[in-house]
Amino acid sequence: MSPKPTLILVPGAWHNGAIIFNKVISVLSKQQYKCIPIALPSITPTGDPSITYIDDITAVRNVIEAETTQGRDVVLVVHSYGGHVGSSAMRGLTRPKQQQNPNRDASGHGHVIGFAMISSVFTVTGASFVDGTGKHPPWMTENLETGFIEITVPARDVFYHDLPEDEGNEWAAKLQRMSARTGKEGGEHAYAGWKDVPVWYLATKDDHALPYEIQMMFVKMAKEAGGDITVREIESSHSPMLSRPEETAEFVSDAVNAFVG
Fold it and tell me: Which CATH number belongs to the domain containing residue 237 in this structure?
């Protein structure tokens, strides 16, 4: 096995993983981590309303398997909606619980060994994103004519209010279209993979998109359902990877160290 696991980074809704994690990747790369950011199929500049939740799961799962089949362990780093995708994508790819020595695997395969969640949601097996969380938040809506999920308030206020105004507006302009089907369909593919691995959760205390109190409600429910969850907190908006990249990278690094043991 490689001395350090590969980090696969999965973005939230409307965001391009190839750019949203750049600041954090810059820090982690200096620590010799291999980082692979994901661009989810459901999120594109022009949009494709035919894309579904299983397309996003498959995209992440393919990257996981490309690493684990080469003997590399993987840690999934997920943000917001990305947690719903990552949880299901790891199904069957975690270390068997009966395997006593994590440093020995006769198959030669790596595994998903941990889940680092940033202001995210806990997937419910058999439930779509909307069914699992209750409903869409009030600042978004489904456009029935286009088939996309739309933000109904200024995006800077939802995601980046702790960035300088110019920078926040710049990131808001980079948001892409997202298929509405990813939220309301695909429950049959949803899997609570977070029950199969240790979880570190970064709670964002000044979050306008997924308020801190709701995050803590989800964490409490997950713990009661048997999750092994460690919580860290950060004074940030919904996007600490932009406003607090060094602290976010430290959270990821500390989580990985805990997962490796």
Answer: 3.40.50.1820
